[in-house]
Design a protein that fits this description.
alpha/beta, single chain, 363 residues, binds (3S,4R)-3-hydroxy-2-oxopiperidin-4-yl beta-D-xylopyranoside, eight-stranded parallel beta barrel, 15 helices
Length: 363
């Protein structure tokens, strides 16, 4: 009797063991490597994966909506986006008592759905103004109310959605004096500081930048921007960073690029290379051709700038943003009406040598 039981028990163990063994053999066979699969496939390197700081592009909602290749490159390569035009006063505040949030909100949604940082450009500028501002009449108090309302309304609408604002754009001339604008004319020289205060009051968590161009070549303008930043810090005016547009060219001197980045960083503020493009035809030659030699020159310039930026303290690196994505989207062609190839992607969104220059600069 006991013998029989033992025998039945052993039979069961053997049966279960056989099933386990066969299962293991099947699992092992199924998990056998495909001989064609690469050993340890590496994830594709992109600008955002290679950079240790945010790497961004200025974008246009209509291109995101209508051009699949554009959408694909933006989504894949960048982890930060800047509004190229849609948050400018002329677009977002078309009438004194009307704001149009449609396109800005589109960018917010895109950014949230795709985990991109959104940088706002720009609250106060002398250009891209709505017609009504040019016809606006009233004393300095009326102007101040209008100026304050614009800043507060826009910053509040995007509170918690936009991480940083270019509060004032291009307030200086190359000679270091304040640019003659409607804002300066009606509000006085300290309007820049008040713009920062109003923005800060509307969203105490948002980062506030002063943004300007030609800081590489114009030492006087650069000094004026630096002095203003130091003055703001000493007066407790809330400023967190300086945006250097960096619309430069293949002929911009390396030392000018390096000095500008290092000097801006010496303020202790964050530095944003905010609108990077490197013109290959700044002389506006109508017969210009984008030769391999020019492409290589451009690559080296991108590399040098990225290397210089990469070496400032990490906590001051707000990021590098190119001014749009492919050469065909660049404002340079339409704005200056000239042939040019200033961006890291070509007209068909193929990577140019400039793209690889950036990757090399990030190493
Ligand atoms: C440019 C846009 O890229 C163009 O599409 C638009 O027609 C004009 O403005 N400095 C700035 C940006 O701060 O706002 C400008 O953008 C380029 C120069």
């Amino acid at each position: 009797m006991i013998k029989n039981c033992l025998f039945a028990f052993l039979k069961q163990i053997i049966a279960v063991g056989s099933i386990c063994f066969i299962s293991l053999v099947i699992i092992a066979a199924c998990s056998k490597k495909n001989p064609d699969a690469p050993e340890n496939p590496k994830p594709e390197i992109t600008l955002q994966s290679a950079a240790t700081f945010p790497f961004g592009a200025a974008v246009a909602p209509d291109l995101l909506r209508n051009r699949p290749a554009y959408l694909e490159v933006v989504t894949k390569e960048f982890n930060s986006i800047t509004s190229e035009n849609v948050l400018k006063m002329g677009k977002i505040h078309p009438e004194l008592n009307r704001y149009d949030w449609t396109e800005g909100d589109y960018l917010v949604n895109y950014a949230q759905q795709n985990k991109k940082r959104l940088h706002g450009h720009t609250l106060i500028w002398h250009s891209s103004l709505p017609g009504w501002v040019n016809n606006f009449s009233g004393d300095s108090i009326t102007w101040e109310v209008m100026f304050k309302n614009h800043i507060e309304t826009v910053v509040k609408h995007y509170k918690g959605k936009i991480i940083a604002w270019d509060v004032v754009n291009e307030a200086f001339e190359d000679d270091g004096r304040k640019r003659q604008t409607v804002w300066l004319q009606h509000l006085g020289a300290d309007y820049v500081a008040r713009a920062f205060q109003y923005a800060h009051a509307a969203d105490p968590d948002v980062l506030l930048f002063y943004n300007d161009f030609n800081l590489e070549n114009s030492v006087r303008k650069r000094n004026a921007v630096k002095q203003m930043a130091v003055d703001f810090l000493s007066r407790g005016i809330p400023i967190h960073g300086i945006g250097s547009q960096s619309h430069i060219s293949v002929n911009t001197k390396d030392t000018a690029i390096v000095n500008s980045i290092n000097e801006l960083a010496q303020t202790g503020l964050k530095v944003h290379i905010s609108e990077l493009d490197i013109s290959a035809n700044s002389a506006n030659d109508p017969n210009a051709v984008f030769t391999a030699e020019l492409a290589e020159k451009q690559k080296q310039k991108y590399k040098l700038l990225v290397q210089a930026y990469n070496s400032i303290p990490k906590k001051q690196q707000h990021g590098i943003t190119t001014w749009n994505v492919g050469d065909a989207d660049s404002w340079i062609r339409s704005f200056f009406k000239r042939k040019d190839w200033p961006l890291p992607f070509d007209d068909d969104y193929k990577k140019k040598p400039a793209y690889y220059g950036i990757l090399e600069g990030l190493k």
